[in-house]
Amino acid sequence: MSRTLYQKLVDSHCVLRLDEEHVLLYADLHIMNEYTSPQAFAGLRERGAPVRRPWQNVAVVDHIIPTHPLKQRVILDEASALQASNLARNCELHGIALFDTNDPLQGIEHVIAPELGMIRPGMVVLCGDSHTTTHGAFGALGFGIGTSEVEHVLATQTLVHRVAKNMRIRVDGRLSVGCTAKDQVLHIIASIGAQGARGYVVEFTGEAVAALSVEARMTICNMAVEAGARSALIAPDDKTLDYVSTRAVDLKRHLPRAVELWRDLCSDPDARFDAEHHFDASEVSPRVTWGTSPDQSIRIDERVPDPAAAVTPQQRDAAIRALRYIGLEPGASLQGLAIDRVFIGSCTNARIEDLREVAKVARGRKVDPRVRAMVVPGSGAVRDQAEAEGIAAELIAAGFEWRQPGCSMCLAMNDDVLRPGERCASTTNRNFEGRQGRAGRTHLMSPAMAAAAAVAGCITDVRRLERADER
Amino acid sequence: MSGKHTIAGVAAALPIANLDTDQIMPKQFLRGIDKAGLDRGVLYDLRFDGEGRPRYDFILNRAEYADCRILVAGENFGCGSSREHAVWGLLQFGIRAVIAPSFGEIFHSNAMNNALLLVAVSQADVDRFTRDVEQPASNRIEIDVDHLQVRSRTHDVKFTMSARHRAMFLEGQDLIGASLVHAAAIAEFERKHWDRQPWLQSIGAVVRARKS
């Protein structure tokens, strides 16, 4: 019978079927952080159960870590420091690989796992973090899970998985100059809605997806969860193989066999999807969110919508509420809207290609004096590479703060927080009320657009700025 | 007629679409290594102003809703972050059930794992319940899990629940214990899986060792 890629991955990881809806799914890799794992380890201790497969697990300190540009980092907040030391203790106790606070390879979990070669096509990856969908970029099935499930994975190396429906999102055409994967995914989310993919695993296909780099594909899969998707997938191709084989060096001797297996990691031609959407990448423009849900975005040349025009009363109420919070009127233009802060970072957009895009815009320009702009690389490795490429020096010269890696102001669990009323151009994934700080106002956009906002002092169309490579 | 397993009590309406887990449990309450004290964080920015003073106009701060046990919420309730702290906090706050048109996926699993009852009914049904419970005089709701029925003063509707989730709720099943029963099957799976794809075995330890 024809199967989708998702069905193939469920089949290849199904330990047993529990009932019509649920399978016991094997987890090849379980990634943990310091804030969603402590209670799971405590539960395990109470139960007296061991970690079943410590070597299929890794852990990293990323959410609470300060990003001050000091080489030796100290976590001053007492509770956060305890979370970090507690994670180290749990890893030590159970023999789990850890990337600790001052490890040169420390970084955001969804950035370091791929860059260190841990993510390979055909895997199941679990993590107590909703953006685990990122790893779909490799044809790996990633699910965000809760802490009870983290404990379940530690004890059994499996997840009780409620089988999802299949959705295919096909993107044809080509992105035009100045438009990125971030704009593409914001466009898709705006179109299908914040729960448009709820209940589904989404497979992204089409020539526009094939044209994207592996890092750009990670941005797309990362944000699929903002449309409510359980997970996201992109069938692996030569780009994936190239990315993985250069990073997963232990794979070398298995590569011919692995490549043969990976060839089957695609949906069969006549596989049935429960829902399908089509998009044309050439219709994508740089996008910016105007509201407090990731589906509330518009093209940079559009005007903030009038809630009165909303389709449902729920959407109308949500829009009214969002505009009140964000401090905008219907019909307003986002172009020219003054900003206080710029945040370039997160598991969505803090990889080397993102920073190169930022540097292209920033090169030879200055951050507007009214703006505080932070660049938080996704990992120590990204930071090192950006320094080696001269990107860091250019950003520093332009007036950006060049910081240490971590989740930082994406969710503001550390001391990088918006003050009430501050407006921020952000390359992150969520513009929720209070996400970056109580009463803070977040506008999601691409790294290039955020860089443009930094130098202009206001939200602006990056296509109007001459890029360094054209100057 | 009520079944044995009934959640009944004061219900409060929160007619907000996409009420995400960041709002249900803000970041500053996520720094613990246990589950204690999360009731303080529930819907914090809605319950309190910037100076930490209660917003008395917010429904959960009104005296008539002080003993609230049930939330009547908007679509996609609990979307966003996977933080289970949102569920732990709601339970500690006294909430036993949430009625909404739909729920965020990870929140849904988290709720089931903690026996926080989620009742999915249509937006029209939610609107009817909302109208009732917005009046303090008719703010009680009864959820009968045996008969899968929700009832407010003027409205009554059936809901569905998978057999598994119903059993989890009614019997408080130990999921980990239930899965550990399959330890032999897991071991057998691993043997075949790693035989076929040896590059997936010990992946965390192998990568860490290579980089150290």
Automatic annotation (TrEMBL), chain A:
Signal peptide: none annotated. The keyword Lyase applies. One of its GO terms (molecular function) is 3-isopropylmalate dehydratase activity. Binds 1 [4Fe-4S] cluster per subunit. It holds the Pfam family Aconitase. Its cofactor is [4Fe-4S] cluster. Keywords: 4Fe-4S, Amino-acid biosynthesis, Branched-chain amino acid biosynthesis, Iron, Iron-sulfur, Leucine biosynthesis, Lyase, Metal-binding. Pathway: Amino-acid biosynthesis; L-leucine biosynthesis; L-leucine from 3-methyl-2-oxobutanoate: step 2/4. Its EC number is 4.2.1.33. The keyword 4Fe-4S applies. It is an enzyme of class 4 (lyase). Residues 8-457 form the Aconitase/3-isopropylmalate dehydratase large subunit alpha/beta/alpha domain. [4Fe-4S] cluster binds at residues 347, 407, 410. Heterodimer of LeuC and LeuD. This is 3-isopropylmalate dehydratase large subunit. It comes from Steroidobacter gossypii.
Automatic annotation (TrEMBL), chain B:
It comes from the Bacteria. Belongs to the LeuD family. LeuD type 1 subfamily. SUPFAM superfamilies: LeuD/IlvD-like. Residues 6-122 form the Aconitase A/isopropylmalate dehydratase small subunit swivel domain. Heterodimer of LeuC and LeuD. Transmembrane segments: none annotated. It catalyses: (2R,3S)-3-isopropylmalate = (2S)-2-isopropylmalate. Gene3D superfamilies: Aconitase, domain 4. Catalyzes the isomerization between 2-isopropylmalate and 3-isopropylmalate, via the formation of 2-isopropylmaleate. InterPro entries: 3-IsopropMal_deHydase_ssu, Aconitase/3IPM_dehydase_swvl, AconitaseA/IPMdHydase_ssu_swvl, IPMI_Swivel, LeuD. Its EC number is 4.2.1.33. This is 3-isopropylmalate dehydratase. The keyword Lyase applies. The lineage of its organism: Bacteria, Pseudomonadati, Pseudomonadota, Gammaproteobacteria, Steroidobacterales. It is an enzyme of class 4 (lyase). Keywords: Amino-acid biosynthesis, Branched-chain amino acid biosynthesis, Leucine biosynthesis, Lyase. GO terms for molecular function: 3-isopropylmalate dehydratase activity.
